[in-house]
Amino acid sequence: MAKNTICLWYDKDAEAAARFYAETFPDSAVGAIHRAPGDYPAGNSGDVLMVEFTVAGVACLGLNGGPAQKHSEAFSFQIATDDQVETDRYWNAIVGNGGQENACGWCKDRWGISWQITPRVLMQAMAAGGDEAKRAFAAMMTMKKIDVAAIIAARRGVTAS
Fold this sequence. Notes:
Blueprint: E1 6-10, H1 14-24, E2 29-35, E3 48-55, E4 58-64, E5 76-81, H2 84-96, E6 100-101, E7 106-108, E8 114-119, H3 120-128, H4 130-140, H5 148-156
Parallel strand pairs: 1-4, 5-8
Antiparallel strand pairs: 2-3, 3-4, 6-7, 7-8
């Protein structure tokens, strides 16, 4: 187990979430699955209690803690993408698997975890600063899933068609 691990609280589907992430993102895998050695408030002896997994190289632990705690946008995974094809693939996988779209490149998976599917070109525009960043930011504010061509056009100061 990694020295520092992100622990994500699930109602009861940590294993399903981990398997979905492992199938969706490169450098992701499901590791050890730990079963409860006794009954607990959200489950019974033998139920999956914890799942060790990796998401895009980040060590995580899924805890089936029951419905008491909910996820919020205060935590999200940010996945950098290289082009529209990669952006679409991740976005469509999350939203198409019972997830939900949000604004500015954010979406939630069906377990309530927030994701930022962020093309590198957007982050590069923000890092450039000045008018280029302002134009890219203004374009992004009108989007749900990020449109790479529109961000590139905004960086150049032209309107994408």
